[in-house]
TrEMBL record:
Pfam families: HK (PF02110). InterPro entries: Hyethyz_kinase, Ribokinase-like. It catalyses: 5-(2-hydroxyethyl)-4-methylthiazole + ATP = 4-methyl-5-(2-phosphooxyethyl)-thiazole + ADP + H(+). ATP binds at R118, T164. It is an enzyme of class 2 (transferase). Belongs to the Thz kinase family. The gene is thiM. This is Hydroxyethylthiazole kinase. The lineage of its organism: Bacteria, Pseudomonadati, Pseudomonadota, Alphaproteobacteria, Rhodobacterales. Its cofactor is Mg(2+). Its EC number is 2.7.1.50. GO terms for biological process: thiamine biosynthetic process; thiamine diphosphate biosynthetic process. One of its GO terms (molecular function) is hydroxyethylthiazole kinase activity. Substrate binds at M43, A191. The keyword Lyase does not apply.
């Protein structure tokens, strides 16, 4: 496993352009989170431009939080462009078990070989076809309960699967890692999971996908821990979290990461 601080340093020096097709809820906070971390986000989804832009991007994220048919078509176009250009892309199957529309759209995107799938435990279970609808965009299952589903999805997709929650679980189907960083205030703010997809995507550029995903999760969780020391509740937590992403330096990440491989 590469030094986690070095991985953060690499991401900041690259300052990668990341194309995000995300949901209406996440768009603003996700862009701010990514800018604070040192990446360069762009949020766009029109079918008329999505292929052209995806071809320019260094990484792509696709999130089905607020889908519609036109967006879904744009998502498939962007994923195919990513594959044609060997550009890494991250898939977030938001609430994929909740409705028939999502249960149909999720597997269509899964079939396009995402480099990383990142979701909460209920989403990973639902995408793997092991049931559980979750509670809308929130999880009702434990990360532990989703470990086997994550391994299956990794084998099926050929990519990395990250299940987030109190302790995050990452696997490529064979290797696994647990990341204990994080704070219980994080799920009290909407779209911090969605925003994390952009951070993972930024870390993927020019780095080993498994190591990059682990480093991104540890960085994100550690920033959450630091933010909690200044927050009085969810609203001030969000502000402190964005500041912590900006302030956290590589040496502090290497020292503060709680990763078990
Ligand atoms: N109870 C918790 N304690 C510590 N960290 C947590 C907890 N729950 C979530 N996190 C952290 O919050 C971040 C977002 O993960 P989460 O699983 O909440 O995503 P999500 O459910 O997809 O969120 P959203 O859909 O609102 O964007 C991750 O870094 C994760 O480690
Ligand atoms: C709350 C919510 N609803 C649809 S997407 C989203 C953001 C968290 O996934
Ligand atoms: Mg989510």
């Amino acid at each position: 496993m590469e030094d986690l601080g070095q991985s953060l340093d690499h991401m900041r020096h690259t300052a990668p352009l990341v194309h995000n097709i995300t949901n209406y809820v996440a768009m603003n906070v996700m862009a701010n989170v990514m800018l604070a971390a040192g990446a360069s986000p762009a949020m766009l989804h029109a079918r008329e431009e999505v292929e052209e832009f995806a071809a320019l991007a260094q990484a792509i994220t696709i999130n089905i939080g607020t889908p519609s048919p036109a967006w879904a078509e744009a998502m498939e176009m962007a994923a195919k462009t990513a594959n044609a250009h060997k550009t890494p892309w991250v898939f977030d199957p938001v609430a994929v078990g909740a409705t028939a529309y999502r249960r149909e759209l999720g597997p269509r995107l899964l079939a396009l070989s995402p480099s990383v799938i990142r979701g909460n435990a209920s989403e990973i279970l639902a995408l793997a076809g092991v049931g559980t609808a979750g509670k809308g965009a929130d999880a009702t299952d434990s990360v532990d309960a989703a470990q086997n589903a994550a391994r299956d999805l990794a084998h099926q997709s050929g990519g990395i699967v990250a299940v987030t929650g109190p302790v995050d679980f990452v696997t490529d189907g064979d290797r696994t890692a647990l990341i204990a960083n994080g704070h219980e205030m994080m799920p009290r703010i909407t779209a911090l999971g969605c925003s994390l997809n952009g951070i993972i995507a930024a870390f993927l550029v020019g780095q080993d996908p498994f190591d990059a995903t682990v480093a991104a999760l540890a960085y994100y969780g550690l920033a959450g821990e630091q933010a909690s020391q200044k927050a009085e509740g969810p609203a001030s937590f969000q502000t402190a979290f964005i500041d912590a992403l900006y302030q956290l330096d590589p040496a502090a990440l290497t020292q503060g990461a709680r990763v078990t491989v």
